[in-house]
Amino acid sequence: MAKPKKPPPVPYLDRMLFEGPIRYSLCITEEQYTAEMERLRAPVRPLPPWVSSGAGATVHHLEDSDGERVAIVCLDPSKYKTGPCLASSLVHEAVHIWQETKRYIGELNPSDEFEAYAIQFLSWRLMQSYADQTS
Predict the structure, then answer these.
(1) Strand, helix or coil at 33?
(2) Which of 30, 68, 85, 112 gets the highest tally of CB atoms within 10 A of its CB?
(3) pLDDT of the residue at 4
(4) Residues 116-125: tens digit of each pLDDT
(5) What is the Cα–Cα distance from 85 to 104, expressed in whole angstroms?
């Protein structure tokens, strides 16, 4: 019996508006998520579900084997009937990456404009990754 083919590694996106401390990616299949968590040697066993029960998307925050902060956004496209629903979910997950970034760097009260640009940039990169992976 042939060994199942592993999906290619997930692409990591930019680190926001500045050289941020958190790498982030988008996994749109459970296979991508599992392969990436194995590649990162995720310390949590068993692995958490790729998408939380009842949700369409989930972000997982962890440290990789080199001690770098990583956020893996997992999105189940089958849970979304329209593009705007999917886009709003990616914005929601972008906010969670932003919240973790603020906690990590100790910036609990950024200016409104800095926060808006950061969330816009994160959202755009996640949406672009989705478009790249599905086109």
Answers:
(1) helix
(2) 30
(3) 76
(4) 988 999 999 9
(5) 29
Nearest to 75 by CA among 117, 131, 2: 131
For residues 11, 24, 113 and 17, what is the CA-based torsion angle, rounded to 10 degrees?
-60
- Note whether residue 16 is domain-resident: no
Does some domain include residue 120? yes
Banded model confidence at residue 108, pLDDT cuts 50, 70, 90: confident
Q: What is the pTM of this model?
A: 0.84
For residue 130, the enclosing domain spans 22-134
Look at residue 93 and tell me if it is in a domain: yes
Whether 26 maps to a domain, the answer reads yes
Number of domains observed in the structure of the chain: 1
